[in-house]
Design goal:
single chain, 235 residues, mainly alpha, 2 domains, two-stranded antiparallel ribbon, 4 strands
C-alpha cells in the first residue's frame, strides 16, 4: 500500500497504515472533504489516492515541525492522519491554517462518527463494557478452539481447516478484535493502570495479525495476552 513517501524511523509501519485506513473507513478525514479514497477504474480495477500525513512533520523544518520530537514518535499512529491527496497538500502548504490541534481534532471527529455509526458507546460501568465486548470475544474463542492453528491440522499446511482458518481470520476474527479495541478505546476511563498495559499488548497482537493475514505476511506476532480474558472484570 503505497501511501507514504517518508523513509526512516518516521515512516509508519505496515500495521500502523492498516490501522489508519480502518480508522478513516476509507474516506478523507478532513470534515469538510470526506471524499472516498478508493475509485473504480474503467479497466475494472480500483485505485486509491489516500495519503498518510504527519501531524507534526517528519522533519523539524517541515509543516508543523518540532525538532524536539523523537523520530520514532513522528511515525507513530498518534502523529498520523489519513487524507486525500488534495487535503494533504493544502494542510502542508498552509500549516498556519492547519495547526496540530486542528488535524488531531479531524481525526478524533472521524473516529467518533464511526463509533456512533457502529453503536459504540461509553459506558458507566465496567460490567456494561464487559457485556459489550463479550459476544466478539466468545466468537473468536470458539473459532480458535474449533479450527485454530493449535488443532491437529497444524502438521498439514494443506489441510482444509488451514484455508478455513485463514478465511475466518480475515472475515471474522480480526474484525472482531478491532470491534473490541474500539469499545475499549471508548471506555479507557474504566480501565485500571494494569489493564492499560494489557490492552497495549493486545493492540500489538491485533496489529501483528492484521499484517500477517492481510498484509505482506511473515511477521511474528505478539502472542494473545491471556489477561485480556479478564478485561473489565471484577477488579
Amino acid at each position: 500500500m503505497s501511501d507514504s513517501c517518508v523513509r526512516g524511523k518516521a515512516n509508519p509501519s505496515q500495521a500502523t497504515r492498516f490501522r489508519l485506513w480502518a480508522d478513516s473507513a476509507g474516506y478523507c478525514q478532513s470534515p469538510t472533504c470526506q471524499k472516498a479514497l478508493f475509485v473504480d477504474l474503467q479497466s475494472g480495477s480500483s485505485a486509491h489516492f489516500g495519503e498518510i500525513a504527519h501531524v507534526i512533520a517528519a522533519s523539524g523544518d517541515g509543516p508543523r515541525g518540532d525538532a524536539s520530537v523523537d523520530e520514532p514518535d513522528l511515525g507513530a499512529w498518534d502523529n498520523l492522519i489519513l487524507l486525500c491527496a488534495n487535503c494533504h497538500t493544502i494542510a502542508d502548504k498552509a500549516p498556519i491554517d492547519h495547526p496540530v490541534e486542528m488535524l488531531l481534532a479531524w481525526k478524533e471527529g472521524r473516529l467518533a462518527v464511526i463509533e456512533a455509526a457502529l453503536g459504540i458507546a461509553s459506558f458507566a460501568s465496567r460490567a456494561e463494557a464487559r457485556t459489550a465486548i463479550e459476544p466478539y470475544a466468545t466468537q473468536n474463542r470458539y473459532l480458535h478452539r474449533t479450527i485454530g492453528p493449535d488443532n491437529e491440522y497444524r502438521f498439514n499446511p494443506e489441510a482444509e481447516e488451514a484455508a478455513m482458518w485463514q478465511h475466518d481470520m480475515v472475515e471474522t476474527v480480526i474484525p472482531n478484535h478491532r470491534r473490541i479495541l474500539r469499545i475499549i478505546d471508548a471506555n479507557t476511563q474504566l480501565l485500571t493502570p494494569a489493564e492499560k498495559e494489557v490492552v497495549a499488548e493486545y493492540r500489538s497482537h491485533v496489529d501483528g495479525l492484521t499484517y500477517r493475514h492481510q498484509g505482506e505476511g511473515g511477521l511474528k506476532t505478539v502472542l494473545f495476552p491471556k489477561a485480556m480474558e479478564g478485561i473489565f472484570g471484577d477488579s
